[in-house]
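Supplementary notes for students who missed Thursday's class. We covered one full example, reproduced here. Read the sequence, then the structure, then the short commentary at the end.
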Amino acid sequence: MKKTPCIVLFLILGLQLLMPVAHGRSQLVSLGTGGVTGVYYPTGGAICRLVNQARKQHGIRCAVQSTRGSVANIGRVRSGELDLGIAESGWLYQAWTGSGRFADDGPAKGLRTLLKMFPEYLTVLARPGAGIEQFSDIRHKRISVGKPGTSQRSTMNALMRGHGWGLQDFAMALSLGAAEQASALCDDKIDVMIYTVGHPSGATKEATRDCGGQLVAMDDKSAAELTTNNPHYVPMVIRAGVYPANQKDVPTVGVNATFFANAELPDAVAYAMVKSLFEQFEQFRAMHPAFATLQPQKMVQGPFPAPLHPGAERYFREVGLLPQAVTGTSILK
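Structure (token representation):
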């Protein structure tokens, strides 16, 4: 009879130890990506796959959602509809500071950086015979400006402002999604498609393969106008041979993709997300050609478009990737 209370006590303690594990195993986090033909979608899929492979260690399950891209992801993570997202660094910085595209929304001080990802290139693809040799030649052509609220539309708006153009300066301006543009180009519905994306991308591959779409260089004037007024863009080069039909280096501009979260994401979850990726990093790099040249040291170097999440920072310090205190939060110096 005297042993009964001890047995009950041990049972209670055992259940208490098991409860956090059971709770962790039922925890689901959602990750906003982009269109299925871009690089955000497979990036989110790769991250979630690695997180789910390590689920027995941390009890977290990751689910990918296809979205309209950067701007949509920022809004949905900010509102709490999504836990995590991928976005162009420039838009994330503007959201965090409440500037530019997000001036009317006010600063989104609840956004946090987890990782800097791959470079994204402003990609201009022209239909053969359209008479487009450089970006400034797209005036008076049939173009796709992207759907309202997308980063593609925001980028196009910035380019038009730099040139003093309006939609009336084009023969036709369609609001096509990223996945629709390649088909429209090949079906002779538009002369040029514009897309900020990591390479290789499905949509670019489709357009170059199926109808001979040609990458168009960003002329110096256009590049200067965009980078001067939008400092998160920097000069980049799409290397020859990324697509078989394009065998020359193509000068352009671009940004970095950033993996980010809401500040309310528990530190333990942020820690587990980045740990799952870095402990399986070689597998991650093999999951998509855009990841092949990524280096962990560069992915955790600031300045960042939004402050680094404390959970991610803790992991980076533990493994020696971030030995000193992070003082910068901005992507701009």
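Commentary. The chain has a mean pLDDT of 85. The longest strand covers residues 111-126. If anything here is unclear, bring it to office hours.
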